[in-house]
């Protein structure tokens, strides 16, 4: 498999630090405001002047798709370009390709360095710039799969086993989806008439979990998600934890690949609207670690929507509240947002590792909610 070029492997130094320091970074962009009822809610400063995604921003995505396709052969284009159908949109998995084989599109192992560079530019156009999220997180997760390939996983793992597909024709008119993913990773950005119509399902998982070295780089993907979600649970009182605790053991996510339309009819857990202002800020900060995976302008718009629904959002969990051991599980369930984080047993390596998904009950697959 080709070695990913420098655009996929920008040098970074990531050091695991105390959770309080990480959490402080996550909360930097949030301020608290007080409602007339005396109940405070948190407002991310980045959303105070946000507007809807513009066709200009979307146009830069289309330009990046055109620059990428210009590097491809006719056979590669035939693999890349797929029909925009719900069946193709649902053809994603968190499993290694050897265990899944249902993905559509062009495999990264078929690309040369110049083509991978053009793909990296495209992925930068659709993802966020926050450290540890967005494009930085993609790099770290690809590094993680290369680590598995080098440490017992063999050829079934590695960044060459990831796929890129265009469902429909990239354009500022009509509807199309940019689909990118592989083991432990899925991007599904759907655009309608030049505007991002949906950024979910968005899957993130990682093995090894924690700090690891790969090709001279230090990586710690999904640290910010775990720290932020654990901070929410740590902030809850004994009574609030009791309200938030779910019955039973959750050994995996509820809304796994292939289980797309199973949003529970009833909310479970503690309602965020009953929490104090600082607790609400923690919930919003946890949500932001997922939303910030997409480009900054669209992330601000989506986070503002989720903030407006925050009081009607619920937090629930099962297992330990530290979210570090197998079967530890947490869920954020709002009128739109759905986030799950589940600690799994190791597959290639010893120890636990997380699976995590961000869904949106109104915009999953760009709002194409039909079975």
From TrEMBL:
It comes from Cryobacterium cryoconiti. Keywords: Signal. Residues 1-37 form the signal peptide. This is DUF3500 domain-containing protein. PANTHER family: DUF3500 DOMAIN-CONTAINING PROTEIN (PTHR37489). The keyword Transport does not apply. The keyword Kinase does not apply. Residues 33-55 are annotated as: Disordered.
